Amino acid sequence: MNRVFGAVVLAVLLLVASTAAAIWWTARQDARPSSDAIVVLGSAQYNGVPSSIFAARLEHALSLWEDGVAPVVVTVGGKAAGDQFTEADAGRAYLEEAGIPGDSLLAVPEGVDTLESMRAVGAAYAERGWSTAVLVTDPWHAMRAERMAEDAGMEVTSSPTRQGPAVQTRTTQFRYILRETAAYLLYRATGESVAGAPGVG
User: In the record, which residues are listed under signal peptide (predicted)?
Assistant: First the structure.
């Protein structure tokens, strides 16, 4: 009995360790092939102004668009109770003010977490006959976002932002990796997302 218990514990520890290592590895990648669109995962906004985490993602998406990675930038994310603006609309306004023309922007104002947002983007892709995307989010969130996007029918790579609060210190990075490890394993086991804002949950 003790051997069986020990084997189970060891298997769980190996699964957690290998998942954390995969998240760390994915976070270090930067794939930017020519694609149908650049998809920016939403994060908090305050009265239409993107938070520092969201702004870092948007600035990276702007750079990718300027480099010709894709002709369209998709912003995604709904709004919390009491908010006047969705994250998608706040992101679109930010990028339009930064110089991207309106016909190169698509706001998908749906989703209270990453899973809902990716499903909404997948539906928008299907309507337009698109298939390929470069995802922009924080490094530690990239692997889970990729998996959810693929499950929503998209062909994706990720180009994580290297700026913003999520990557400032090693302590912050370690905390994000632990959280993402738990969130990724939960999704693979149940098909559900953790509660949180788009780009977090």
Answer: 1-22
CA distance 60 to 159: 8
CA-nearest of 100, 41, 103 to 67 is 100
Paired tokens of 200: 């977090």
pTM of the model: 0.87
3-state class of 12 per DSSP?
helix
CATH of domain 2-190: 3.40.50.620
For residue 42, give the DSSP letter.
P
pLDDT band of 81, cuts 50, 70, 90: confident
- Distance from C-alpha of 187 to C-alpha of 147, rounded to nearest angstrom: 9
- Domain residue ranges in the chain: 2-190
What tokens does 199 get?
A: 């780009």
Is residue 109 within 8 A of residue 93, CB to CB? The reply is no
- How do residues 5-60 score in pLDDT, each as one tens digit? 777 777 778 888 888 888 888 888 898 999 999 999 998 888 888 999 999 999 99
Q: How are beta strands 45-46 and 49-50 bridged, if at all? A: antiparallel
Q: Quick one: which of 157, 79, 152, 85 has its CA closest to 119? A: 152
Cα–Cα distance list, 45 to 80, 175, 201 (Å): 10, 22, 15
Count, residues in the chain? 201
